[in-house]
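As a warm-up, study this chain.
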Amino acid sequence: MNTIATSQGAAAVSSAGVGLGGATQSAADMGQQFLKLLVTQLKNQDPLNPVDNAQMTSQMAQISTVGGIQSLNASITGLNTSVLQMQALQGAALVGRDVMLPGKLLSIVDGSVSGNFEVNAAADQVRIDVLNASGLTVDSLNLGAQTAGQHSFSWPAGRDIGQVDGYSFKVSASLGAQAVGSTALMHDTVRAISTTGSALTLELARSGKVPFASITAIN
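Now compare it with the structure written out below.
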């Protein structure tokens, strides 16, 4: 009596997810194919050398695992869609709101020129350099020691505030001779929202389109 060697074939089907024709199959299709191979093997096995029970159980477990992974992937995809829809609804409430994000443009708030920054650790010296629209330094502010976290500053422009539109700044922080990491932050206004792929995107008045994840504060 001929023995049909299906153990390796069944394992390949279960692990690679391909059928006899090479086409990608679902877990259900692979399960049906595996069962057909298994029944054929049991019918034609050598009575003196029967199929090993442990190997058969392992192959059936692989089929079950593939099916479980496909079900999990489908569930995660559905969850991602739901989360994105929820984010879009929440993002709609941001239209017209003021937000803060990494950026170097100065803001005019209540008639004064101001900016924000964040230092990664305590610093004994923080300096703000104010740059005009051409990128030239027009003033510097020494803010002294600052704790870790976010801070704000005001710049006494000493001129028509309308002339500082487009002005920017850069922040430098140090502790003794050691530089301290810092990030310039700016204010912007949300004009619209959109969903791109699996991410929520905000359209800002000054910064254009930015990912929602880049927002550090909402005012």
